[in-house]
Amino acid sequence: MQEIWIDYINALDTKALALDNDEILDAVTAALVAQGRGETVIEPRVHLVPESSDKGHFNVLRGYVKPLDYAGVKVVGDFVDNYKVGLPSELAVLNLFDPRTGVPKAIVDATAITDMRTGAITALGAKYLARKDSKILGHVGARGTSYWNVRLLDHLFDFDEIRVHSRRPESREGFAARLEKDLGKKIIVTDNWEDCLKDADILVEASRLPEPTPLLKTSWVKKGAFVVPYGTMSALEFDLTDIMDKVVVDDWGQCGPGRPYGALRRHVDEGKVTAENLHAELGQIVCGAKPGRESDAETILFWHRGLSSTDVALGAAIVDKAKRMNIGQKLRFA
User: Which GO terms describe its cellular component (predicted)?
Assistant: First the structure.
C-alpha cells in the first residue's frame, strides 16, 4: 500500500492563516455557485443527542463540491452551557476526502470554519436579497457565528447603525466591545429584542432559546426589510411569513418537512412554507438561475440551516493557504 499523509490544520494554525473577509466570502460564493449549478451533493444533516436536547447535541454534515474535488464530513457539537466552563458553544472537526478513492486528505479544525461560513452565508444572503441602501442592522445573539454575521455584513454594507442584543448582559457587552474594536465604529447595546430589531433594514436572529418562543414580532418588520432567522429553536411569530414577498432557504433538502429544529420548522411542518411557494435556494440566485431582490419594496426572509458544501469550500481554502504559507502538520495515515 502506498503512503498516505493527511494535512492537519488545528485551531492555532487557522488563526495564523487569518483569512480575510474577501477570502471567506469568495470561498463560500464558489460553493453556492456550484450548488446552484447542480455540482454539489448536500446530504441533510443528522444529529447525535448524547443525553437530552436541552444539554446539547452533535450535528453531522456531509457534502461534496465537484469543482473543488473534495468530499467532506464535519462533526460539530452545539452545547449551550459551554460558556460556564470557558468553552465556545460550538466546537467542530472537518474531514476532507478524495471523492474518487475515499483517501483522507485533511483534518481541519472547523470551529472557526463553522463561524465564518455561517457569517458568510448571512452576508451573501443580504448581498442578493437586502436593499442596497440598508444602513441599520439589528442582531440578536452573541455566539461565534454572530461575530462573523456582523463583521461580514458590515464589510458589504458599512452600516450607519449596528444594534446588538443577547440574553446575558456580560455576553452582549463583550460582543459589542469586540465589534467596536474590530470594526472601528460604535455599537448600540440593547437590553431587549424590540429596541434591537424594530424598523431595522436587516434583522438577524441567532438566538439560543431552550424551546420555541415567539420573541421576534411581525409588527417590528418594516416593508422592504430583510430578515434572517436561524436559531435552532424558532423565535418567530407564526404570521411572519405572511408579510414576506419572498422566502429563500439555503437548501430545501434540509429545511423540508420532517426535519428537526430550525426557525421555520413549524411553518414548514404545517404547510405555510412549501416547496411550491418557496422562491428559491440561495445558490440558484447566486449562480443567476433565479432572481434575488427585484425591488426596494420587497420584504424578504432568508432561512439558512448550514451547508456542508460551504464547510468543504472553506476547509479547502484553508488547506490551500496553509500549503502556501507552510503552516500545519502532516500526519501519517498509512
Answer: cytoplasm
